[in-house]
Amino acid sequence: MTRVALALMAHPDDAEILCGGTLLLLVRRGWSVHIATMTAGDCGSAEHTADEISRIRRREAADAATLLGGTYHCLDVGDLNVFFNAEQQALVTRLFRQVRPNLVLTHSPDDYHLDHEGTSRLARAACFAAPVPLYRPDELLPLENVPALYYCDPIEGKDSMGYEVLPTTVVDVSAVIDAKTELLACHESQRNWLLKHHGVDEYLRAMRDWSAARGKQFGLAFGEGFRQHRGHGFPQTDVLRSELAIRS
Fold it and tell me: What number does CATH give the domain 4-247?
């Protein structure tokens, strides 16, 4: 069976921050890996026009995916406009039928950014819709099965109200933390933007500090946290646990 992982995220650089180490480990185990973003990051600059920063961030995302050994896709929904609706569900479902993932990684359903929450709902909906033969039957072939779905840690491990969200499983990314840092470094435009908007400097250091903090909770040097969606109709087998070294 072909093993395909898809990280569906809201913005360029989200995948590298939240699950870049896990994607690297999957590539090393022979998985085909895809990173998709709902937006091109068109609002992510205080210096460029929307068109300019979109082109820059698309290039950065594609460069990171190439360095990873994967493929990048952009669904071209505007920043701050990612919502669960029929049009966007159709876009995401079509992507799923093109990529045909066995494993999907996405944002936490409760996060600081509504684009993240919208992406999470769309990923969940597409996992269920993509195998349904009568949903948009005039397009691509439906998936054979509902893919395994995992939610990454929310940013800083906190929900939208600032309360801690604990993962059910943590992937040990200690062996690939330097490579993960190189992936994130491809998103050069974001350092200045985050400094301007969030007051956050040391873009790469912040990622490493968070990975170290999550890992420390589970006796690891660096970790990435996930929660598996195990609702009715979704796979119950822990794919990450079977593929990678996991602490729970």
Answer: 3.40.50.10320
